[in-house]
Each structure stands twice: as structure tokens, then as C-alpha cells.
Specification:
It comes from Streptomyces daqingensis. This is Secreted protein. This protein is mainly α and 191 residues long. Helix content is 84%, strand content 0%. The protein is built from four helices and no strands.
Length: 191
């Protein structure tokens, strides 16, 4: 005769299976939660790193633009000064060693100014700024063509004004980049 299992034993086995299933389900939920947390953490860190990289890239560009603008203005003022000396030496005695030295220095300063202008062209894409930079360079370059001292002074004033205008536009451009950056504020303290 076959013995029937007791009702109590069947219930105990059912509870044991349910407890095992509950443990497996709890573990599975914990693993899924951990994976989702790790994935979300990865995405947040990746986005933060990308923002930081972009900020650093923009800041390097801004610093280079600032430096190149200053270097061009300095080079243009030195070129303008050399053109002034060139004109005076040429009107004293065209063939003198001093006139030749002034012309040579003027050419050297022109080269330095041209290099600074090329650097500005590489760093900026603002059409007005590039136009003002070229205008300042051209004004400084035309100074030695003055027919008399009054014309020289007039051309010198035009060159200074052009350099100042270029600097104003460059400063506005560089400051404008700073103003366009998002301001990241810390979260407000609750309480």
C-alpha cells in the first residue's frame, strides 16, 4: 500500500520553493539595479568629461585669441613706429646708411606684423575683426608713402585709429565668448 504524503509536508515543500524563488528574484532585481546604476553613472561621468573637455578647448582657444590679438596690436604699433623712422630717414638722405637701416628695420617689422596677422586669421572667423586687422596692417604699411610731414602725421593717426578699432572688435569678440558660456551653479542647499 502506498503511503500518501502528509499535507503538512506538501505545504512545507511549497514554502521552501517559494522562499528559493523569492531569493532568486531578489538577487536578480539587485543585479539589474546595480547594472542600471553603473550604466547611469557611466553616462553621467562621460557627459561631465565631455563638457570639461569642451570647456578646456574653448578656454585654450580664447586664450590663444587673446594672445594673438595682443601680439598683432604690438607688432602693428612697432611696424608703425618703424615706418615713421623710415620716412624720416628717407627724407633726410635716401641713400644714407641710416635710411637703409630704417628701411631694413621696417621690412623686418612688416614681417613680424604679417606673421601676427596670419596667426589672427587662423584663430578667428569673425569677418569684421579680420577686415579691421587687415585695414590696420594696410594703414601702417602705407605710412612711408606720405608726401610731407603733415601727410605722415595724418597716415599715422589713421593707422593708430585702425589698430584701436581692431583691438576694440577683438576685445568684444573675446569677451563675448566668455559671456556666452553657461554659468554652472551648485545646487541650492535644501532645508
Amino acid at each position: 500500500m502506498r503511503q500518501l504524503p502528509c499535507l503538512w509536508c506538501q505545504k512545507a515543500q511549497g514554502f521552501a520553493v517559494l522562499a528559493a524563488m523569492q531569493a532568486v528574484l531578489t538577487s536578480l532585481i539587485a543585479v539589474i539595479g546595480t547594472l542600471l546604476g553603473a550604466g547611469a553613472s557611466f553616462l553621467i561621468q562621460k557627459r561631465t568629461a565631455e563638457r570639461s573637455e569642451q570647456f578646456q578647448r574653448e578656454e585654450r582657444l580664447r586664450q590663444e585669441q587673446l594672445t594673438s590679438s595682443k601680439d598683432l596690436a604690438t607688432a602693428l604699433h612697432e611696424y608703425r613706429s618703424a615706418q615713421h623712422a623710415r620716412w624720416h630717414r628717407a627724407h633726410e638722405d635716401w641713400d644714407s646708411p641710416a635710411a637703409l637701416a630704417a628701411r631694413t628695420e621696417s621690412y623686418r617689422r612688416r614681417t613680424v606684423a604679417w606673421q601676427a596677422l596670419a596667426h589672427v586669421r587662423l584663430l578667428f572667423n569673425d569677418v569684421d575683426l579680420l577686415h579691421d586687422a587687415q585695414t590696420a596692417f594696410d594703414c601702417a604699411g602705407d605710412m612711408h608713402r606720405a608726401v610731407d610731414k603733415a601727410d605722415l602725421e595724418s597716415r599715422d593717426d589713421m593707422a593708430r585709429t585702425a589698430i584701436d578699432k581692431y583691438l576694440e572688435v577683438a576685445a568684444h569678440h573675446v569677451r563675448g565668448q566668455l559671456a556666452r558660456r553657461p554659468i554652472i551653479r551648485p545646487p541650492e542647499a535644501e532645508g
